[in-house]
Amino acid sequence: MLVWFLPLFLVFLLIGFPVFFGLLAAPGLLLWLNGQEKDITLLYRNVYNGMDSFPLMAIPFFMLAGELMNKGGITLRLVEFSQAMMGHLRGGLAHVNVLSSMLFAGLSGSAVADTSALGSMLIPAMEKQGYTRRFAAAITAASSVIGPIIPPSGIMIIYAYVMGESVAALFLAGIVPGVMVGIGLMLMVKFMADKYDFPIASRKATWHERGQASLKAFFPLLTPVIILGGILGGIFTPTEAAAVAVAYALFIGLFVLKTLRVSELPEVLNRAGITSAVVLLLVGAAMAFKTVVSLSHAPEHLAAFILSLSENPLILLFLINLLLFIVGMFLDAGPAIIILGPILGPIFLNLGVDPIHFAIIMSVNLTIGLATPPMGLVLFVAASVSKERVETIAKAILPFLAVEILVIFLVTYIPAISMTIPRLTGFAD
Predict the structure, then answer these.
(1) Quick check: is 22 in a domain?
(2) Which of 141, 142, 242, 326 has its CA 20 to 30 A from that of 27?
C-alpha cells in the first residue's frame, strides 16, 4: 500500500497543496491507514534531522552572500562589465543578459536570485530598446538556470549531502556544462538577432572603457575564485567557503565599494532568512519523504522496472532524461533530487555510469526544469518582475529551452564534458 505515496503526492500538488505539506501529508496519511503510527513519528522527526546538517549550512550562507552582492550594487557592476564587452553586438542587451547570468552564477548559485536581480534591471532596459517584454522575460528566465549549474550551486550541495558525493567534485563538474548553456543561449540570440534585426545596445566600448568596467567588476569577480580556490586548496570546507563569501561580500559592500549601508542589513538578513527557510524546510520534508521511500521498497520495484525496459545504459539514460525533464516541469529541483537521487543513482552506478557524471546529468536536467512550463519556478519570478503573463513567457522561451535540452543530451552522452576538470584536479577517477 505504501507504494501509492508518490501518486498521492502528485494528486496533492495538482489540487494546490504547497510542496512542503504534500511531501509530509502523502506518506503520513498512508502510514496512518497502514497502521504504522510509530513510523509516522519517525517521518516527522526526520524533518528536523534532515535539516540538522553542517554541509547544508552552506545554502543559507550562499543565499546571504547573493543578497549582499545584490543590495550592494554589485549586480549593476556585473551588468556594466557585460555591456562593455558585448553591448555593441546586434541583440547586445540579450547577450548582456546571458553573460551577466554567467557571472552572477559565480556569486549566488541561485536561479531565483538571478531572475529577480537581473530581471528588475535588464527587462525594463530591453523593453526601452524595442524588445518585446515577453522576449526580455524569456531570455532572463532561460539564462537564470545557469546559476545553479556554474559553482557555487545550492542544488549540488543538496545532491552531495543526500548521495554522499564530494561537493568540490560536483562544483568542478558543473563549470563546463554551465558555460555551454551560456554559449548556446548566445548563439540562439545571435540567430534571432540577425533574423529579427534586434537593436544594438551601445557603441563599441574602447579598451580604456572596458578596462574601467573590468576594474569595477574586479572585486565581485574574485568571489568565485576565493570560493573554489579555498575549497580545492583544502583551506576550508564548502560550508566554510560560503561563510567566507558572506564575510567577503559584507567587507566589499561596506568598506571597499561603499555601496552597502549598515541600515540595509536587517532587510538583507530578512530576505536571505526567508528564502533559506523555504529551501531548508523543503529539504527536511524531502528527507522525511525519503524515509517512506525506503520503507515502501519503491527503489527496488522501480529499479526492476527500469532494467526490464533495457539493459543498455545509453537507452536508459535517454529514458531517465525524459523522466527528469517531466519531473522538473512540476517539482522544484531540490526536492526532486532528494526524492529521486537515492532511487536512480544506485541503478546507474551498477550500470557503470560514474556517480559524478550522473549527478551532473540529474542536476543540469532538473535545473533547466526551473524554466520549463507549466510549473517552472523562474517563469513565475520572471512574470512577477516583468508584469507579463506566464503563458506568453512560456511560449517565448521555447527556442532557448531547445538549446538547453541539447546541452543536456551532450552532457549525458559525452562524459568528458563534465568529467575532465574533476579528473584533472584529482576529484574523480
Answers:
(1) no
(2) 326
